[in-house]
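YM 10:42: ARM10 protein sequence, as discussed on the call
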Amino acid sequence: LQKLIHLLQATDDPLIQEQALITLSNSAAFSVNQDIIRNLDGLSVIGGMLSDSIPKVKEKALNALNNLSMNIKNQEEIQVYIMQVCRNVESAPLNSDLQLAALRLLTNMSVTSDYHHKMINSIPCFLHLLSEGTERTQIQVLKVLVNLSANPAMTKHLLRAQV
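YM 10:58: structure's back
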């Protein structure tokens, strides 16, 4: 895992980055590896890949963070990327794998109300995707909206959103 994280930092080759991110994502399926990746500063390295200009690299980074977000301590570190992930949802091509990967991460990060406030500005986008997206996109957006709606503090933001 340490070598994969170092490889991500050392290379600019998108194909190598994608493969390293896929391997880290698969490794994150095991809870012990989630802690190891966090302790090796892997979350910030992977999070840094969200700024990459290559959509496939961003998508793989989002998938890795999604798998890593199943851990409360990891969520505490991943939450700094929520607004950037929301921007990815808004700027990604409609119904793209990149958009879906970002929505999946937001679904996990919205299971508890701790980070809902960071998603408020994206509610109009979520509602737009609900009306314009394919069934896969709609289902993922609904998961985020259901999580947000479970928080009473979000009621006025959800009801007042400009669609």
